[in-house]
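[09:14] KT: can someone run the structure on this one? pasting the chain below
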Amino acid sequence: GSEALEFILRERAQLFAGVPVVHIGVDKEEARPLQPLPADVIGVLVEYDYARTIELARTLNPRTRHVWVVTGADAWDREWESVLRAGLPRLGNGLPVEFLAGLDRDELAVRLSALGRDDLVYTPGYFTDGAGRHVAPRDSARDMAAVSGAPVYGPFNTFIGTGVVGGHMPTYVEMGRQAARAIAALLDGTAPTTLDLPDHMKPVDQVDWGQVRRWGFDPARIPGDAIVHFREPSFWEANRGKVLAFGAVIAFQAALIAALLLERRRRRRTASALAQSEVRMNLAAQAARLSTWIWDVTRNRFWA
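[09:31] RB: done, structure tokens below
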């Protein structure tokens, strides 16, 4: 994060002089005061776009009429509140926006439970509520989702699975992969200045399939490029290989049976033709008062 990067830059000469630094999970906006970074301090900055989360929520539920933003009471919570208030003109995209900031957890639960399905709750979670009780942001998001009468959205994909519908979020797994590639290249002797890293990591739409079902959203309204978590695969998706193999066996058996039936039909036609030919031969021989005989020379057998 940005605080860790700021600390390393300040104390680097005493702690890790001359050692390359790879940063991870640093917010693009929070990194602006730290620019320009030294040439051997590298990483992929992360972009958070809360306005796009509101757009996603309105796509899933076009009937959304009101946005409620929930933040906490400590310094980190207040910082998030100021960031969100600064983006207020575009945050609601024309919807009325109201902040529930620094409330006691119990009071917040009462306020959220009174909301309806056409409301929208957006929260980065909080560390401290208005009564001074401490909690991790992910756990606070889970508590809010459990009591809210309106769908809840957030900026972090660690909220997925807590009852939050989703959001326009960067993916921490991809952050780890980007950092791993940079670290592996540095350990392999590549110079930091020659690494080809993207400028920043863009967020993507992410939704919890269970919450989509819970709120009755039309799955067809989920953006095509969204990451859908916890969706149970269809029978075809889960058993495609088995179905194809079984179908191939059935098709082969059907083809074999058809070939055998066709061969049987041909044999019957041949036998019928031979029988008719023999009848005609006998009739012709009888009409001409002819006799027929066969002499098997090799076995010296005679038939007449």
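[09:33] KT: thanks! Residues 235-287 form the longest helix (53 residues).
[09:34] RB: yep, looked fine to me
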